[in-house]
Amino acid sequence: MPTYVYTALNEHGVNMQGAIDADSPETARALLLSRGYVPMKVKAQGAGLELGALGDILNPVKPKELILFTKQFRTLFQAGIPITQLLQVLQNQTESKKLKRVAADMAQAIVGGSTLYDAFKAHPRVFSELYCSMMRAGEASGALGDVMERLVYLLEHEHKIRSDIASAMRYPKMVVGALVIAFFVLLNMVIPKFVMIFSAAKLDLPLPTKIAIAMHHGINNYWPLLLAGLAALTVAYKWWLRTEPGRYWRDSLLLRVPIIGPVLQKSVMARFAAIFSIMQSSGVTVLDALDVLTNTIGNAAIAREFRRIQDKLKEGRGIADPLKSARFFTPLVINMVAIGEESGSLDAMLRDVARHYDEEVEYAVAGMAEAIGPILIVVLAAVVGFFALAIFMPMWDLTKMVGKH
User: Which residues contact 114 (CB under 8 A, 6 or more apart)?
Assistant: First the structure.
């Protein structure tokens, strides 16, 4: 069911904002009227691109800012401060301009009668579906403080995994970037000067030199077409990745790539176990937890497996048996879930799995960084060797020709 973001007046004439699920804008307005609100503006969530939304896209809230905001929210809530006053304090304390605006909007929505969950859900570019679902579970169970404690752990856990992977990939990206720049400099500035000398000597050029010359002429003569083709391919590829088949193809392929695949699989297993255990201990049903995981796991291939598991759960099966037939799930996860389900301690078993895979990800990331180094050296040697052959083989022939004369 679509979600609509609205601006409305309550019975006291106070302007409020929030989100509501409805079949159509007309149904959303009717629901608001039935609650005693006068709808001023109703639009599909994500529809339109207002200035504030554009700012959120170009300059999103940083993970560290969101973690600090959540920690402050938890601390103030546990201190017994009312929600509206709590949000006003956060508005004054946070350094992020976006979070200041969000806190002000949320306070206004809650004063107008909106639930805490609706106030969070009205800002999907700041608070993920997982974040909002956790808030809803805490609000419904009356254990919001405990749920926010788990949410802080989850946000820090995910930020750490992503930071570790980004740190491991920083050096390879720098080397590859420098390599690409060096390749084009040699091809367009060094090769042409030697080509003039070889042409004047009327040498029979070797294959590496002919390939280098062909690439140089192709770039010089057809660079507008090459750029247009590259831009078209990039746009088409990005458009395709927005489709479900495109995301599934990319994510399933990445999971099979040597070195990178095991790291991604272990990080997804850690994310799955951490999120699932926290949602289980927060009172969220297995079906609802899988529904949230499907949209937040960050991997389309595994998200498709979650949908299959959901279908089997609706038939009355437990979660352990469907997991056995699911792809990409490791034997450890399957066995621990089966033991947890049988013993009634699924959330505890999943916490153990999350801790185990946190350590596995650290080792895997370190191993990936060590393995990529030799691969980069081989690629660098291949590029240097190609240009060395392209330049020095004809130079050697030219030297022999000069020696004969």
Answer: 16, 17, 18, 122
The CA angle 186-188-194, to the nearest 5 degrees, is: 75
Q: Can you name the residues that pair with 42 across neighbouring β-strands?
A: 6
How is residue 153 written in tokens? 């752990």
CB 134 within 8 A of CB 151: yes
Nearest-angstrom CA–CA distance, 272 and 32: 36
What number of other Cβ atoms are within 10 A of residue 134's Cβ?
Answer: 28
Cα gap 263→271, rounded to integer Å = 12
How confident is residue 54, by pLDDT bands cut at 50, 70 and 90?
very low
Task: Write out the DSSP string of 218-281.
Answer: HHHHHHHHHHHHHHHHHHHHHHHHTSHHHHHHHHHHHHHSTTHHHHHHHHHHHHHHHHHHHHHH
Taking a C-beta distance cutoff of 8 angstroms, is the pair 134, 150 a contact?
yes
Domain borders along the chain are 3-127, 142-405
Q: Can you read off the two tokens belonging to residue 291? A: 């529904």
- Closest listed residue to residue 190, CA positions, set 382, 3, 392: 392
Per-residue pLDDT tens digits for 104-151: 888 888 887 778 888 888 888 888 888 888 888 777 777 788 888 888
Q: How far apart are CA 110 and CA 118, in angstroms?
A: 9
Distant-in-sequence, close-in-space partners of 96: CB < 8 Å, separation ≥ 6: 61, 62, 65, 69
3-class DSSP state of 165: helix
CA–CA gap between residue 204 and residue 268 (Å, rounded): 56
CA pair distance 223, 235, nearest whole angstrom: 18
Query: Edge-to-edge strands of the sheet including 3-9?
Result: 15-21, 3-9, 38-44
**Cβ neighbours of residue 238 closer than 8 Å, sequence gap 6 or more:** none
pLDDT band at 230 (very low <50, low <70, confident <90, very high): very high
Determine phi and psi for 221, rounding to 5 degrees: -90, -25
Nearest partner of 106 among 131, 78, 143, 130, judged by Cα: 131
